[in-house]
Specification:
CATH class of the largest domain: Alpha Beta
Helix content: 40-55%
Largest sheet: 6 strands, mixed
CATH superfamily of the largest domain: Carbon-nitrogen hydrolase
């Protein structure tokens, strides 16, 4: 069987896609497979030519991202109004684009495996993987969906190094283990290779484990010591059907759902702050005639409300120039507005259409909620000691936004999202997994309020408290720790991933220059 697979390296590469999907949340969820998931592709690369390695990377990546991103069809088809003959090709194109990075990885990794010392490969291959993940997070507005380290979100005790190097540090360790196994399998003298690579490998893994254990204990002590520096936050998950959410006739039902479920929280708890999801209010608060229903809620219970709602600003009344925003609004206990945040990282083709004059057929994707303008990350929204940095929707998958909030003084992060777009798919589980890392990286509590789930509370260790089920009405309240201080990741560790990319490209450049110099000229 092994010989059969070695003669068909493409099959080995495709096996990597299946193993990764099997390890991910919302897939097979067999997370130990991460330790060997990349091994089939890595051992196949030396059997391929440069061209075939690129083809293999494209095939593996396309299969993987078709399995991970199938919910795109739901977004574009069911809610975007696009026919299947447009939405399915759009999914395939996105999967192919995502696989380009894996193709680049395969091309360079093959060079490392066949033309460099195993010790160099052991560290360079994980750095290459992390560097390309970073590149994907910044190119074309960025789409860092489910980098490999995120698959460990359900095991918070082993991701504590994220406060040093971010989720990229966790990804590095995962790929490092896979590379070690692959190098041993590829070696002609496996015993010698194991002894040669064993010491640095053991040193890295032991240091990672020791740090994680000690950091877990120290953060637990901090949480216990600073428990008085906290706030009770209540979350309501309205489970409003996306297909009728913006219908005027359904508006009263939506408001009643959120108000009544918020009141129910006060029977057992007394939240200092209520949190409703992204665009929980399908209306403009500036012009809504019954705004008293919200001010009465906060006045009656001496609480504040942080809710998602569309917002507008009139730029030029005479020219009817108006800007629309996907916003978070804070309503104080006296009914006054206490601050706002306008989503800064908008979803392309979801909240705005890039080059929309050239792509008019995509207009239905934004007609339902408006063509939004971006805001900026500014001063946290403050209430009773809480300084909330707000992450609207998929802003939670961008670590730099959470990091910027912490640099600006946030002592808690609040993620308002509407995952109804994804339907009953794996996407809500992916989204929650990525949000877990924002808590560990910054050592901040994260409060997550989602229209259809998953809602819940994530502590600074990455533990998810009382998560909701998806597509149910749900309400919950928890006392949330308010931590200050800045982690190494917030201060300096965010340079780890781009540093990996720079180092990988430098190593590749040096290799290509040397190969050119040693190639005989006819």
């Amino acid at each position: 069987m092994t010989a059969f697979l070695r003669r068909r390296p493409l099959l080995l590469s495709l096996l990597t896609a299946v193993l990764l999907w099997s390890a991910y949340p919302g897939g097979g969820e067999i997370w130990p497979l991460l330790s060997v998931a990349l091994v089939p592709m890595l051992v196949a690369l030396p059997e391929m030519s440069s061209r075939r390695s690129v083809i293999g990377g494209l095939a593996t990546g396309t299969l993987l991202y078709l399995l991970l991103l199938y919910w795109i069809v739901i977004v574009l088809g069911r809610y975007g109004g696009l026919p299947f003959f447009v939405s399915i090709p759009a999914l395939v194109l996105l999967a192919v684009y995502m696989s380009v990075y894996l193709a680049g990885f395969a091309y360079v990794a093959r060079i490392l495996l066949t033309a460099t010392h195993p010790m160099i490969s052991l560290f360079a291959i994980p750095a290459l993987w992390v560097g390309l993940d970073w590149l994907r997070s910044v190119m074309f507005s960025g789409f860092p969906w489910m980098d490999i380290g995120y698959a460990l979100a359900g095991n918070p005790k082993i991701i504590q190094i994220a406060d040093l190097f971010g989720h990229g540090g966790v990804s590095f360790v995962v790929v490092f283990v896979n590379t070690l196994v692959a190098l041993i399998l590829l070696s002609n003298n496996r015993l010698r290779c194991t002894l040669q690579l064993g010491l640095p490998a053991a040193l890295l893994l032991v240091l990672t484990a020791v740090y994680s254990v000690n950091r877990w204990a120290s953060v637990q002590e901090t949480l216990a010591a600073e428990l008085t520096d906290s706030i009770v936050i209540g979350v309501v998950q309205g489970n409003i059907d996306q297909s009728v959410k913006w219908a005027p006739l359904f508006q009263h039902h939506t408001i009643t759902t959120y108000v009544e479920n918020s009141k129910a929280l006060f029977a057992d708890d007394h939240p200092d702050l209520l949190v409703w999801p992204e665009t929980a209010l399908p209306l403009y608060l500036q012009t809504y005639r019954d705004v008293a229903i919200f001010s009465d809620l906060v006045k009656e219970h001496d609480t504040a409300l942080l809710t998602g709602a569309p917002w507008f600003e009139i730029i030029d009344r005479s020219k009817k120039k108006i800007k629309y925003f996907n916003s978070a609004q804070l309503l104080n206990a006296d009914g006054s507005f206490g601050g706002s945040y306008y989503k800064s990282h908008l979803v392309p083709f979801g909240e705005y259409v890039p080059l929309k004059k050239l792509l008019p057929f995509l207009a239905p994707l934004v007609e339902a909620v408006g063509d939004f303008s971006p805001g900026v990350v500014g001063t946290p929204l403050e209430w009773r000691g809480a300084k909330a940095g707000v992450l609207v929707c998929f802003e939670s998958i961008f670590p730099d936004i959470a990091r910027e909030w912490v640099l600006n003084g946030a002592n808690v992060l609040v993620n308002l999202t509407n995952d109804a777009w994804y339907g009953k798919s794996s996407a809500p589980y992916h989204s929650m997994a990525m949000t877990v890392f924002r808590a560990v990286e910054t050592r901040r509590s994260v409060v997550r309020s989602a229209n259809t789930g998953i809602s819940g509370f994530i502590d600074p260790l990455g533990r998810v408290e009382a998560p909701s089920e998806i597509f149910t009405i749900w309400a919950g309240a928890e006392r949330v720790a308010l931590l200050n201080g800045k982690t190494h990741y917030v201060r300096w560790g965010h340079w780890f991933a781009p540093g990996c990319f720079a180092g990988s490209m430098l190593l590749l450049t040096v290799f290509l220059i040397r190969r050119k110099k040693t190639t005989p000229v006819d």
